[in-house]
Write a structure and sequence with these properties.
about 425 residues; four-stranded antiparallel sheet; alpha+beta; about 25% helix
Amino acid sequence: MASEVTLPRLGQGMESGTIVRWLKSEGEPVSKGEPLYELDTDKVTQEVEADAAGVLLKILVAEGEVPVGRPVAVIGEEGESVPEAEAASEPAAEPEPVAAQAGTGTPEAPGEETPQDVPVPQPSEPKGGDGTGERSRIKASPLARRIARERGTDLASLTGTGPEGRIVAEDVERATLGGQPAPSAAPVPGAAVERVELSSLRRTVARRMAEAWTAPAFQIVVSADMTRARELRAALLERHPDERPTVTDVLTKVSALALMRHRDVNALYAGDAIELQPSANVGIAVATDRGLLVPVIRGCEHLTVPQIASARAGLVSRARDGKLQAADLEGGTFTISNLGMYGVEQFVAVLNPPQAAILAVGAIEDRAAARDGGIVVRPTMTMTLTCDHRTIDGATAADFLRTVKEFLEEPGLTL
């Protein structure tokens, strides 16, 4: 019996998604669990698997934005008649943006300029024999297709630099920049103001920032002598050159161990309750060309620093390539936001609700310090902890941050 394929809800807060392309054509056999189409959400682009086996009888929505639960295709037995679909091919109205775990901190590393999310007319594409059109024969990453669609770039005119000639996001960016005139030295009198519509991810981040701003937050600041932490990182780098551990990885491990000692900080605010989490799932704020994302490294208290480095590198790479899965962004209990690579000495990060706290990390700088009645120079890093006062009190937060400082200044205390 024919069954409708509906758009799934891939994460908490998801209300709609954009079908990028179909991986199967009408009339093709489909196995249960086989990738069926690519779906772009507020946070990730990922393949959606078929939940039934049979033949793809009808594609109801070829591409575009679709609300969760709407039928997008029909799977059944070969030759079976297709039931009437209820206005499935009509474009869906854009939903009100909702809060999602997109992250509200600041970037862990430099990102690219965020592409404008301005709808542009798409040139008509000839239909191929497979029923999916010429675009299905062009090898391009989902992120490259999204940017090209947003900027009106014809993928067929580009040369891919990815594996097997695959077009990647950088190829589209390069083509777009190459086609623009050089910026003038001075504003042109009477020039029109350029209006850049918010992308779905930017709308989600804006909504979450507004939500976070309503929380009664407070900040505490501490500076740590990073001499021993740097020595530890250098030793780890020598022994694990492939993983290339960073100071952020050391800080992630140290924070996870401190969270296990101060479980009140490793908590989520649930309205009428506070949920103490059993494991330290640390989110790392990452800048991408789509916006800010916070992928999560789970169970950091059980991982070594090289293991954390490997997990962090994989998440950051997938985030910038647009290959994160919804599960990569969910379940965080604490967030670290590092702007040290920008030379920022100190800053305040916005809460990432429902988490109780977020740690903002500045650059390591040589500063004068008093030691044994004299003045010495030490590599110093300033950390600012922003806390939700509904979940934790000042003394609890100060005790946690003191533990982080002690662990950084004497890593042996973590044993």
